[in-house]
Amino acid sequence: MSDPNAAPLLQVSDLAIEFASPERTIRAVDGVSFSMANGSTLAVVGESGSGKSVTALSLARLLPSPPARVRSGKILFDGTDLLTLPETALRHYRGGKIAYVFQEPSTSLNPVFSVAFQLSEAMALHRHDLTDRRAAGLAALSEVGIRDPERCWKSYPHELSGGMQQRVMIAMALVCRPQLLVADEPTTALDVTIQAQILNLLRDIRSRFGMAILLITHNFGLVKGFADHVVVMFRGKIVEQGPTDSLLAAPRHPYTQALIACVPRLGESKKRLTTIDYDKLDALLSPS
Q1: How much is the pTM?
Q2: Which end of the chain is more exposed for a tag (fewer CB within 10 A), N or C?
Q3: Which residues fall within 8 angstroms of residue 252, CB to CB, at 6 or more apart?
């Protein structure tokens, strides 16, 4: 468990990000602030277009600039403002201290290189202490629940299932021993059974290795039992945040209430799923 009195591992303050084009400028993230402790788990929840993935990518400055530009804010990681670092210094953080797992493993893995090559490349960049990369790679594949790590080590991405590919992506992050793992919709492309396996794996990794996990998701159904705290984003802003159990039990913001109401529940006999009435929501959120 994380120490509540310790300094935050990650502290994002008043972050604003814009995307500029000759026609117009769009503010995708607007005044976002949150923090995470070592070993904690935070879920950022919102619909597509809410700004959650842009926020996640900005942590290691992975957004292409242009068109993206940071208009204001700080991203402090272990006390260092990542927004002020030169590109050469930032490479130490990307993959090494902050690792990412994305929602489409088939597009994240390079199809022309074997798992062995891609795992070894990650270790060459961030684990200079390793003398036997093959042994470390096989151990990482085993740690993420791959039953035949030898065969997987020699395989190419197209020879693996979607669930196996995602486990390889997690192994690539794990082998570098990051302090923060950013999981951006890591189960979206997988079936329900594999989704549960991947979430259980991430939960187990947090327990065994003590790394913090930032989960990006649109699904409140994944949050309960996984995250310590929740941040809810709507139209680039944080509209509500707090401890998971408290927020789910008594959501205060109309958008949070609407999102939770959209989660289907077993045993309910409703003929139609609940949807969000944006006209009503806009009326509630408009200043009087």
Answers
A1: 0.90
A2: C
A3: 240
